[in-house]
């Protein structure tokens, strides 16, 4: 591990739980515009005002009244008095924290030096206890019409938890290669050597790639001109197995110097077990393209979760925080109250994780998932773990359920874990027709979950329990699992 990393580790372990810190009452780093960059407020009408924070938005921004406007101030805490910069951007009002005049005792020094520039984390200025309290209150409020949520499952060491990271590469104004994450609300890259929620091994690899690019002719892709080669690097780490996948996302399939690159990376990082080239020629914010080529290794990694082994492809979904996932899945299976006889549907099943864990306690499991690669992984995973009572199908979960209901088929338990947008009416109305005794709804977006719970509770189901899980510490995101019973 590099010296830089040790230093920073010390920083975040030292501060994460304390209330207050040296930044108390001082302006955060985001204040003065940086050299070489235009000031953020040039050409915009901006004013400085003093405000008092009265609450938090669901994204963790401070709420403050200014004249007749309700402002949302990033990094401000309830009770704090602060100077803010208010700028008008067309119809939108942009607010930036300039200086905290009176700090809350819940404020801590964010351990990450890039925190105020980067949009990745939003809550590092809150102590761990305050973050938990903020998430609990948000879920309690949202779920009020349904049931009282249980106390949130927090994480003991809420850093270094991500098993998947994306690094974007580009050139700075001095034509030097930079690599890191995007600045908040922009496509400017912050040149960073670590992100405190990433797996440190992934950041070491991303830094080696940056050094390699600086020494060779490997060019980062330029979004404006369409020239250059490397767009992003996606790294997946098997936290238990130690296997590591590196995916170079490039704008072209022509990889000049491929052999030298692979040789250098394998020599410097023998922990990399597979490397792929993914070609993304599209001009979108979607990271991965359709074309994929294995550069070495088997093209997938394997990891252990809840005592089972899972093979994971580059494009398949796999929960990003395995420590908290085990708690989440444990709760979901407990809520399903399986006796060994039930037919369980694992809808939006990804690589089959929840369904395969449930299969040990169920009669049989039917998994459905849209992503082809993930379904292949799920079938392989079921064989790998000797599971004989699970089947996996590729397709839209809504259509699959409609067809099942039309055929008059039955299910005892539906476990559903849709993407952030939630489920849809086709799916939910078919659940109502299939009449499972229980529905266990896992969600990474409690707002869409609350919308879908409203549908199900209006159509014969009752919410019997809600468990929030802090799956994404330092960010405002929360995972929840809800248990619904029929009748
Ligand atoms: C939040 S992930 C959950 C995956 C899995 N349950 C897990 O815990 O790893 C949501 C999954 O839904 C899949 N998905 C998205 N839209 C879908 C649809 N319309 N029908 C079926 N699956 C879908 C995604 O590909 C993704 O794998």
Automatic annotation (TrEMBL):
Biased composition (Basic residues): 1-13, 32-44
Taxonomic superkingdom: Bacteria
Chain sites annotated for binding S-adenosyl-L-methionine: 319, 348, 369, 417
Top EC class of this enzyme: transferase
Region feature Disordered, mapped onto this chain: 1-51
Active-site residues (renumbered): 444 (nucleophile), 444
Any one Gene Ontology molecular-function term assigned to this protein's record: 4 iron, 4 sulfur cluster binding
One GO term of the biological process aspect: rRNA base methylation
EC annotation from Swiss-Prot or TrEMBL: 2.1.1.190
Keywords associated with the record: 4Fe-4S, Iron, Iron-sulfur, Metal-binding, Methyltransferase, S-adenosyl-L-methionine, Transferase
InterPro entries attached to this UniProt entry: MeTrfase_TrmA_AS (IPR030390), MeTrfase_TrmA_CS (IPR030391), NA-bd_OB-fold (IPR012340), SAM-dependent_MTases_sf (IPR029063), U5_MeTrfase_fam (IPR010280)
Family: Belongs to the class I-like SAM-binding methyltransferase superfamily. RNA M5U methyltransferase family.
PANTHER family associated with the record: RNA M5U METHYLTRANSFERASE (PTHR11061), TRNA (URACIL(54)-C(5))-METHYLTRANSFERASE (PTHR11061:SF30)
Name assigned to this protein: 23S rRNA (Uracil(1939)-C(5))-methyltransferase RlmD
Organism of origin: Halobacillus salinus
Organism lineage string: Bacteria, Bacillati, Bacillota, Bacilli, Bacillales
């Amino acid at each position: 591990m590099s010296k830089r990393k040790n230093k920073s580790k010390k920083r975040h372990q030292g501060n994460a739980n304390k209330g207050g810190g040296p930044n108390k009452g001082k302006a955060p780093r985001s204040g003065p515009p940086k050299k070489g960059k235009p000031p953020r407020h040039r050409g915009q009408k901006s004013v400085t005002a003093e405000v008092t924070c009265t609450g938090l938005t669901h994204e963790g921004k401070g709420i403050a009244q200014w004249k007749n406007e309700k402002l949302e101030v990033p990094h401000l805490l309830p009770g704090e008095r602060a100077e803010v910069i208010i700028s008008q951007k067309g119809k939108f009002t942009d607010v930036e924290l300039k200086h905290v005049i009176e700090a809350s005792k819940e404020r801590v020094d964010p351990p990450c030096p890039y925190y105020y520039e980067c949009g990745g984390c939003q809550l590092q200025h809150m102590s761990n206890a305050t973050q938990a309290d903020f998430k609990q209150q948000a879920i309690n409020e949202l779920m009020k019409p349904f049931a009282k949520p249980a106390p949130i499952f927090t994480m003991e060491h809420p850093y270094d938890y991500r098993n998947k990271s994306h690094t974007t590469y580009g050139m700075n104004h001095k034509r030097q290669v930079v690599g890191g994450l995007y600045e908040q609300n922009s496509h400017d890259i912050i040149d960073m050597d670590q992100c405190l929620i990433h797996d440190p091994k992934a950041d070491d690899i991303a830094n080696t790639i940056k050094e390699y690019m600086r020494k060779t002719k490997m060019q980062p892709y330029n979004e404006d001109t369409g020239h250059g080669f490397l767009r992003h690097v996606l790294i997946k780490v098997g936290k238990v197995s130690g296997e590591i996948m590196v995916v170079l996302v490039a704008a072209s399939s022509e990889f000049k110097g491929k052999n030298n690159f692979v040789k250098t990376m394998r020599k410097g990082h023998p922990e990399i077990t597979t490397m792929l080239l993914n070609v993304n020629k599209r001009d979108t914010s979607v990271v991965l393209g359709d074309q994929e080529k294995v550069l070495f290794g088997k093209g997938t990694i394997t990891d252990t979760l809840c005592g089972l082994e899972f093979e994971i492809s580059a494009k398949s979904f796999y929960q990003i925080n395995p420590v908290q996932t085990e708690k989440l899945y444990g709760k979901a299976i407990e809520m399903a109250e399986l006796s060994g006889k039930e037919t369980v549907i694992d809808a939006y099943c990804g690589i089959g994780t929840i369904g395969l864990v449930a299969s040990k306690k169920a009669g049989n499991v039917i998994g459905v998932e849209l992503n082809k690669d993930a379904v292949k992984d799920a079938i392989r995973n079921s064989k790998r773990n000797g599971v004989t009572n699970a089947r996996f199908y590729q397709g839209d979960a809504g259509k699959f359920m409609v067809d099942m209901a039309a055929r008059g088929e039955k299910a005892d338990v539906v476990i559903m874990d849709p993407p952030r947008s939630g489920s849809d009416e086709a799916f939910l109305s078919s659940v109502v027709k299939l009449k499972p005794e229980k529905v266990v709804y896992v969600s990474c977006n409690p707002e869409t979950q609350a919308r879908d719970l409203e549908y199900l509770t209006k159509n014969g189901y009752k919410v019997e329990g809600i468990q929030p899980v802090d799956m994404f510490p330092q960010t405002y995101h929360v995972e929840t699992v809800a248990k619904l019973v029929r009748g």
